[in-house]
Automatic annotation (TrEMBL):
Protein's name in the database: Tetratricopeptide repeat protein
Lineage: Bacteria, Pseudomonadati, Bacteroidota, Flavobacteriia, Flavobacteriales
Coiled-coil blocks: 460-494
Record key words, sorted: Coiled coil, Membrane, Signal, Transmembrane, Transmembrane helix
Stretches that traverse the bilayer: 419-437
Highest taxon in the source lineage: Bacteria
Signal sequence bounds: 1-18
InterPro entries, per database record: TPR-like_helical_dom_sf (IPR011990), TPR_rpt (IPR019734)
């Protein structure tokens, strides 16, 4: 009898071990298939969830994979549901709880609920800090940065991306750096630094493809194409977009496919192939609106402008009606809404409906005012952001450091050159201070004029009576308004249209126009610095003709012996980019050792002194 029970026990243990081994294999297969064959992964997930009497970690992982599956399939609501189930199985498992909180932030970001997404990431950060998990922390910081990029606040994203990369580099973790570098590339694309963004995208594309992370790979292709279009490489961009559209089909992600078609439309616009462009915009708008995506609003803006050019006003009215009666309009950011309202002004002006044009102009002004009050003024004026706030906050210290280093690196006979460098920089600081002061004054003035604007809107009926009288004047000024629009590319044109409806309105738009304009001081610094170091640059250029003008300018800055942090502020990049740039130039020069490069630069500097 004892032998019989012993045999039964051995058989039971064997069955349990076999079941455990089978479950572990299925979980491993799920993780591999999620990125390449998500539907096959879903079948295995269901099988694991149906296995009885497993440890909570098994059910937690199965629900985590389910949440990720539905996110890949562009179903954020179902994704959140399964992540919540995974959270229930993570009680007493801090590592699993931290991971689920981090992953649950992604579908909320997809739904543009950034507040909830950031709240979950803060909870996840605290969990990872409690268990001392640097890798988990780095991933959380990358997700926080992704939220700020989606909110068009790249200046807030950069510090978190820097922290994430630093943690991954310490751990020598190259695989997990890829999503962080992708997010960093998105940041530089948003601020218009397309060459640097392209370098980062090409690196991450290779990493995603090698790791089999195909959804990330195709998403990156779309953003990569945006940058290629902006640097004039339209053929490469088109190939990348078509590859992305073909690949995204297996994930059924209409939102990303719609975004790709929208970018194809922009590409065909540059080629002036308006027939094909219209087809792409129509397809993009249909796909995005069908999934209730906020991205449909910026596509509607581009689509309306094309329809006005093609004089298809009936279709333009249909698009406006679809957007204005939709719920996805509420998901769009203020910047996209302002552009959409500007496009509506064009439509109504073309139709001769000045009442509706006036209403859209009023809405545009209100949106711009809201953007100003939420400290997003840069997006209104230049539609571009960066790390300028960091530069402004430290500009005085930076100027002192630059001045000190210059004094140490030049002979007393070159003090005049130093003076000509210092004076423009001092003037630059003064101009920036003046600009900030005027901005504050303009905001105060704008607030004072709100009541006047309200009175003007109330006097709309009076303006209607003057429309017939003003129509002749509008035609005469049409050519002038087109020239203004080409030069400014801003709201000024639409404020002129607004003013033309009534002479009483013209005086009150002057203060709004004064907000338009911005200055890039980086180019002025480069011009002044290059002119004061012409001898060094020419000498080095003769010795190394393979170096470009940009490379020689960078070498001249290196000759100042400034820290990477200061150089990164001057060049408007992160310190890591300075290190990589120095390494690439050293390879161009055929120099193997960093000290040898410093010696070469020093020798060219000494030649000038003799």
């Amino acid at each position: 009898m004892k032998r019989f029970f012993a045999l039964l026990l051995i058989l039971a243990m064997g069955v349990c071990n076999a079941q455990k081994s089978d479950t572990e294999k299925k979980l491993s297969d799920i993780e591999k298939l999620l990125f390449i064959k998500p539907d096959s992964a879903r079948v295995l997930i269901s099988q694991v969830l149906n296995i009885k009497k497993q440890h909570d970690t098994v059910y937690a992982m199965a629900n985590i994979y389910s949440g990720y599956y539905y996110l890949v399939k562009n179903n954020p609501d179902s994704s959140i549901l399964y992540y919540e189930k995974a959270l229930d199985f993570s009680v007493g498992l801090p590592l699993y709880r931290a991971r689920v909180l981090r992953l649950m932030a992604a579908p909320y970001r997809k739904k543009t609920d950034y507040s909830k997404s950031l709240q979950l990431l803060n909870l996840s950060e605290n969990e990872y800090l409690a268990i001392n998990d640097p890798k988990g922390l780095a991933t959380v910081y990358g997700e926080i940065a992704a939220n700020y990029n989606a909110m068009l606040r790249p200046q807030d994203a950069i510090p978190f991306l820097t922290k994430a990369l630093s943690l991954f580099e310490k751990a020598k973790n190259k695989k997990d750096q890829m999503p962080i570098k992708q997010s960093l590339a998105n940041t530089y694309m948003n601020i218009g630094n397309y060459p640097f963004a392209i370098d980062l995208y090409e690196e991450t594309l290779q990493g995603f493809k090698k790791a089999g992370m195909l959804k990330n790979y195709y998403l990156t292709l779309i953003n990569y194409s945006e940058c290629l279009i902006n640097v004039g490489k339209v053929d490469m961009a088109k190939m990348s977009l078509l590859e992305a559209i073909a690949g995204l089909g297996q994930f059924s992600d209409k939102e990303l496919i719609g975004s790709a078609y929208s970018t194809l439309g922009r590409l065909e616009t540059q080629k002036r192939n308006f027939v094909q462009c219209e087809k792409y915009y129509e397809k993009a708008f249909y796909l995005l609106s069908s999934v209730n995506s906020g991205r449909a609003v910026p596509v509607a803006d581009l689509y309306l402008r094309l329809l006005v050019y093609l004089k298809k006003m009936d279709r333009a009215q249909e698009v406006i009606a679809l957007v204005d009666n939709s719920t996805f309009k509420n998901k769009a950011n203020l910047q996209d809404l302002a552009r959409y309202e500007k496009a509506k002004i064009e439509v109504y002006k073309k139709m001769g409906d000045h009442n509706m044009a006036l209403a859209s102009a009023k809405t545009t002004i209100e949106l711009l005012d809201t953007l100003n009050s939420t400290q997003d003024k840069k997006a209104v004026i230049t539609m571009q952001a960066g790390i300028q706030h960091e530069f402004q906050g430290k500009k005085n210290d930076t100027l002192k450091k630059i001045n000190s280093k210059l004094k140490e690196s030049v002979d007393s006979t070159e003090n005049k050159k130093l003076l000509w460098i210092w004076l423009p920089l001092t003037l630059l600081a003064a101009l920036m201070s003046c600009y900030l002061y005027k901005t504050v004054q303009h905001r105060k003035k704008l607030a004072e004029n709100q009541s006047d604007i309200a009175e003007l809107v109330a006097g709309q009926k009076a303006a209607q009576m003057l429309n017939k009288k003003m129509s002749a004047e509008i035609k005469e000024q049409e050519e002038q308004l087109k020239n203004i629009e080409e030069k400014t590319g801003s709201i000024e044109k639409y404020l002129n249209d607004f003013a033309n409806l009534s002479p009483d309105i013209n005086a009150d738009t002057t203060e709004l126009k004064s907000l338009i304009g911005d200055t890039d001081y980086g180019d002025r610094f480069r011009e002044t610095f290059t002119s004061s170091n012409t001898g060094f640059i020419e000498s080095l250029g003769k010795a190394y003709p393979q170096l470009s003008e940009s490379d020689l300018y960078f070498c001249a800055l290196l000759n100042l012996n400034l820290p990477y942090k200061d150089l990164s502020i001057i060049l408007k990049v992160v310190p890591e980019a300075v290190r990589k740039r120095k390494y690439r130039i050293r390879k161009k020069m055929g120099i193997t050792d960093e000290k040898d490069m410093e010696y070469v630069l020093t020798q060219h500097n000494k030649k000038l002194k003799h």
